[in-house]
Amino acid sequence: MTGSDASLASIPLPYGPFLTRTLPTLSRMFRVVNRFYVIPAIKAGLGPFHATPLTGAWMLLRTTGRRSGRSREVALGYAILDGAVYCSAGFGPRTQWYRNLLADPRVEVILGGGAFAGIAEPVTDPAELDRAWRALIRSLGVLGRTFVCGPDASPAELATKTANIPLVRIRPVGIAAGPADPGGWLWVTVSVVGLAWLAGRLGGRRAGSKARRVRSSRET
């Protein structure tokens, strides 16, 4: 671990002793769920169907790896406020995608209703932090209230509960590729639904044909 990594790891997060101890395990769990379920679902155009009062809505954020230079993807809860998208680095300043955008703020975002290229910046203004955090907590549903606090918390409580959790503002500056655009995965969803419908139709016809043959044999 480098000196910089060690200093990031030592920054305290406002989660309490038990949750703080489980953060490494939670981080690994989120990576697995993101990689094998949430990210593929968003790419396949299924993001809007996973927006619930429990988990809130999910977006896909693409950053550029600060060391590899390769595209990196992560699924995050988000809020839309004043023409910008807001999200938070729940594992603190050491969060990899957050460190990536600090090195290169040019990002791409896929939302339920479209995709865009944007510039990502950490929010530092206290008034903006207060407003945006409340909007994000509401958008995150039950999970936001459980892991952070209620959206109607006092300014002092909100500041305490979000201490050292970076909040990021992403302002659109261009167009990005969404699930239905070239390279997107919406065709997978359409193909699966189409094949399921066709299989159902063929199965229904076979069942109807078999029933008619049975009735005919009984009549004879």
Properties at a glance:
21% strand, alpha+beta, 7 helices, 220 residues, elongated, 7 strands, seven-stranded antiparallel sheet
Topology:
Elements: H1 3-9, H2 16-43, E1 58-64, E2 71-77, E3 79-81, E4 84-88, H3 96-103, E5 106-111, E6 114-122, H4 126-139, H5 141-147, H6 155-161, E7 167-175, H7 186-219
Antiparallel strand pairs: 1-2, 1-5, 3-4, 4-7, 5-6, 6-7
Helix pairs in contact: 4-5
Largest sheet: 7 strands, antiparallel
First-residue to last-residue Cα separation = 84 Å
Structural class comes to alpha+beta
Across the major sheet, the strand order is 2-1-5-6-7-4-3
Helix content: 40-55%
The helix/strand series, from N terminus to C terminus, equals HHEEEEHEEHHHEH
Radius of gyration, CA atoms, in whole angstroms: 23 Å
Number of helices: 7
Global outline = elongated
Strand tally is 7
Summarize model confidence as the mean pLDDT: 85
* Content of β-strand: 15-25%
Q: Which regions have little confidence, pLDDT < 50, spanning 5+ residues?
A: none
